[in-house]
Design a protein that fits this description.
Layout: H1 2-36, H2 50-73, H3 97-100, H4 102-124, H5 130-146, H6 157-165, H7 169-184, E1 206-211, E2 215-220, E3 227-228, E4 232-235, H8 253-259, E5 264-269, H9 281-300, E6 305-310, H10 312-326, E7 332-338, H11 356-365, E8 371-372, H12 374-383, H13 386-399, H14 408-414, E9 419-420, H15 421-433, E10 444-445, E11 448-449, E12 459-464, H16 472-476, E13 486-491, E14 509-512, H17 520-526, E15 528-531, H18 534-542, E16 549-550, E17 564-565
Parallel strand pairs: 4-5, 4-6, 6-7, 7-12, 12-13
Antiparallel strand pairs: 1-2, 1-17, 2-5, 3-16, 8-9, 10-11, 13-14, 14-15
Length: 576
């Protein structure tokens, strides 16, 4: 009886502690919000409804007591009367060690209750507007994720078990991993020694046929006996390296494009250093896609080509086509945009912390020259999915002393790029903050005002359903901006996995609906789901726009001779 009493006392102490922790977590969060205050010019929100707050606190206390009683009364082989399950996809507590010990079983479930309490409290707290409420939700999630017991040695049973099994070697390995990452200035997500750009990733054959201080232009070697007379120019995002589109032969979107009988050109953006810190948006538009369009037309001797842009690359190339339209030129026979924003009304979580005060601060430091470091960009994107891209590696690399597995996509994810300060500031202000691109004649670029509605070529728009960077409903808004006939396709999965979805693997689904005159929700409600990859659908759409068939030619010509083999040296430059 004494032992049972001792266990009861221990659980009672634990329950009381976690109730207190939950209340303290919430109070600290509310204190933070109070100190942050309302933005300038925005009225302070009304106070919290005391009845709603009291009801939520009572519910929290009742659930903690129910959990404590269920743990005390749990019998071997029986399901407890009350338990707290993680959200779908949360694998932090899936190991047996979290359930084999009643202490750790209680520990992680109490944490989950505290997390639920924090998130529910956010919904009770009034906010100035929807963006402020979303900002509160984001901060609450960051706090909850950071406080998980899996992140700390003393409260992670997997760490303790492994340390005992290895006689402390896992602790030593974890410390060494931490020191190495300190030297690199970032968390290791993969075994980077396995990969080399141009050797076992980005290996599609071709040559650099043109370069300037902003980009290199790659022309890929043909893979079919006949090609369409109309080439395809690909403009990837400048925020990342292009080889996400050319990782391995079996998942390379670039290789797939070539295999469909296209003569493919690609813009490989330079990873800017201090010498390029003066470059602005106009420089990227003029010396990026506009220069590339001119070179491609000269090499292939055609008046029009097909154009594809991915993410911010799509925003840049659409801007370039609008500039050329204002100059009286129409170089694009078609336009494909993959997970691209033209209307920035809803930018998801990325836009939550872009405000006037923050942009003014950036403009004052790097707006006239300097760099937005790759590390800042990588950290921003990683914390959008902190459990997967931050804390997962904290526990694996540092607590367990494990070496990350080799994974090409995560190698690419760690190979970030800088951005020139003037470019970044202009982009954040005119797109994310003021949403000017969608307004005809509002923005001046390269010496002329632009109107996206005057772009009347056929357009293929792809969005992905779980995209946390470009919400699909926002990508859908482009259907009402561009002037040509639009085919909108919605792929499954997220920003990267939804795009890089090879036909050969026959995974996932995509949705199609010819009617793009309705709103996004109505479009999806009437859309037809098709199994497999959107790649095949896009290839079928592009085929009639590719021109007559002819024999392929080698990269370059007498004027634009190959400079070096693909993927070129620009993409190999790593940010420091």
């Amino acid at each position: 009886m004494a032992q049972g009493s001792s266990n009861n006392d221990a659980f009672a102490g634990s329950a009381a502690q976690f109730m207190q922790n939950g209340q303290q977590m919430m109070q600290q969060f509310m204190d933070y919000l109070g100190k942050a205050g309302a933005p300038a010019g925005v009225a302070t929100p009304p106070p919290v409804d005391p009845q709603a707050l009291t009801a939520l606190q009572k519910q929290f206390m009742d659930q903690q007591m129910s959990l404590w009683q269920a743990m005390l009364n749990k019998k071997p082989g029986q399901e407890p009367a009350f338990k707290v399950a993680p959200e779908p996809g949360d694998r932090r507590f899936s190991a047996a060690e979290w359930k084999d010990s009643p202490i750790y079983d209680y520990l992680h479930q109490a944490y989950l209750l505290n997390t639920q309490y924090l998130k529910q409290m956010v919904e009770v707290i009034p906010a100035q507007d929807n963006k402020a409420k979303d900002r509160m939700r984001f901060l609450a999630r960051q706090i909850a994720d950071a406080m998980a017991p899996s992140n700390f040695a003393a409260t992670n049973p997997e760490f303790i078990k492994l340390a005992l099994e290895t006689k402390g070697q896992s602790i030593t390995d974890g410390i060494n991993n931490l020191l190495k990452d300190f030297e690199k200035g970032r968390i290791s997500m993969t075994d980077e020694s396995v990969f080399e750009v141009g050797k076992n990733i980005a290996t599609t054959e071709g040559a650099v046929v043109y370069e300037n201080d902003v980009m290199q232009l790659i022309q890929y070697s043909p893979l079919t006996p006949k090609v369409g007379t109309r080439p395809l120019l690909v403009v990837p995002p400048c925020i990342n390296k292009f080889y996400i589109m050319d990782l391995q032969p079996d998942n390379s979107l670039i290789r797939f494009m070539i295999e469909q009988g296209n003569t493919v050109f690609l813009v490989s953006w330079r990873n800017p250093k201090e010498a390029e810190g003066h470059l602005g948006w106009d420089d990227y538009v003029e010396r990026g896609p506009i220069a590339a369009l001119n070179v491609v037309r000269e090499i292939t001797k055609v008046k029009q080509l097909n154009v594809l842009g991915f993410c911010v690359g799509g925003t840049i190339v659409t801007s370039a086509l609008a500039v050329l339209k204002a100059r009286g030129e129409e170089p694009a026979a078609s336009l494909t945009l993959l997970t691209t924003l033209l209307d920035f009304t809803d930018t998801g979580e990325i836009g939550l912390f872009i405000d006037e005060q923050g942009i003014k601060a950036r403009e004052g430091t790097i707006g006239k020259g300097g760099l937005l470091p790759a590390r800042d960009l990588q950290n921003t994107f990683s914390f959008l999915r902190a459990n997967d891209l931050v804390w997962n590696y904290v526990t694996g690399n540092y607590l367990k002393g494990q070496k990350p597995q080799a994974f090409d996509l995560l190698y690419w994810n760690s190979d970030s790029t800088n951005l020139p300060g003037p470019f970044a500031c202009w982009y954040m202000r005119n797109m994310y903050l003021e949403n000017n691109l969608r307004v005809p004649g509002k923005l001046a670029m390269c010496g002329t005002t632009v109107d996206l509605g005057k772009l009347d070529m056929p357009v293929y728009l792809l969005a992905t359903r779980e995209d946390h960077i470009v919400p699909w409903q926002s990508a859908y808004l482009s259907t009402g901006i561009l002037g040509g006939k639009v085919r909108f396709v919605l792929g499954a999965s997220g920003h990267i996995a939804g795009v890089i979805n090879p036909v050969s693997k026959n995974k996932r689904s995509y949705w199609v609906n010819e009617d793009v005159k309705v709103d996004a929700d109505s479009w999806l409600a009437a859309a037809e789901e098709k199994k497999g990859s959107w790649w095949a659908d896009w290839a079928a759409w592009l085929k009639p726009l590719s021109g007559e068939q002819r024999a392929p030619r080698k990269p370059g010509n007498a004027k634009y001779k190959p400079i070096e083999p693909a993927p070129g040296r620009y993409v190999r430059e790593r940010a420091v």
